[in-house]
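Example with several molecule types.
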Amino acid sequence: MGERRAPDPERRLVNESSDHRHDAPNLEHFRERLQEHMAKKGLRSTDQRRLIVETFFAAPNHVSIEELLAQVREQDPKVGYATVYRTLKLLAECGVAFERKFGDGLTRYELADDEAHHDHLICVQCSSITEFEEPRIETLQEEIAHRYGFELRSHKHEMYGVCPDCLKAAAATGKRN
Amino acid sequence: MGERRAPDPERRLVNESSDHRHDAPNLEHFRERLQEHMAKKGLRSTDQRRLIVETFFAAPNHVSIEELLAQVREQDPKVGYATVYRTLKLLAECGVAFERKFGDGLTRYELADDEAHHDHLICVQCSSITEFEEPRIETLQEEIAHRYGFELRSHKHEMYGVCPDCLKAAAATGKRN
DNA sequence: CTCATTGCAAAATCTTTGCACGTAA
DNA sequence: TTACGTGCAAAGATTTTGCAATGAG
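Resulting structure tokens for the full complex:
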């Protein structure tokens, strides 16, 4: 039988090539936004939620639920996935996190971090994710949206290719591919 | 497990706003490419495959498996989804179709149509999909890939917003949102 | 005849949900 | 006290696969 969806450990090996959090991500700001949202909706602050949220804040960008759950369970092994799913949905709802679905069937989450309009370069061989920013593309996007009468809300710009490391490796092996 | 009929009809309501096929998509070229691929792999030409492939060629762009299956079953009600999945995977393998995953959990397929490097504007309210082309963005993409030492293979550029029709509707209703 | 292909149902995978119990406020 | 939250397991939703039967070459 062929590969099933996640028997392949390589798939979650996401080498965050540019993993910095944009000099001082304003976590306090996000904590406030979350608290506000929870207050408004009458939601409660629990040990699990706090743990999951802080783990998310500390995690590398583009964490998958699985990765996050693993991290969370190091602190408290009894946390279930449902709670992680629900908490991240909550973060997404109040604009603290973005849901990202790259083509591999996993949902990843990233800090909303409005300031940084970055997009992604994804290596088709090693799955590493590199962020980039390009204001000129942002400008063109607005121009295009306007051209079609759209009111722009968000965008997703992903470029797939072979990263420098994999190119080097391929060259060393003898240029297959 | 078992039957999974769509519970949410809205999700598959994809109004193709710009549904043209870029003046004369060279179907003959794609048929040849497919035949070649099949010959090389010793694959066989069956009624179902031919039906599915031709239905795909005739379908609006960005068809989901379900939509395609429905179309196919109008001709031959006995075709199963597995066959459609397998056939579209085949088309993707030999470069005749692209797999597209917009964020709604459905996989859609589109004619490869190399010539037209179009991207997508997606309405967050009615899910309509509009294609656009912008050579200046293509150029910038190459520039960025080069900047990071990537060898670019493909890209995905999706802009999410509210389409003119929904904006009009919203304005008429009284500017919610 | 041989082996790829099909249709069906079951499995696999990721995500959501129902429910009884726990717990923040 | 009173809903909301949690964990678990079961259900959902989409895609893939095993298998016996079918059919192309």
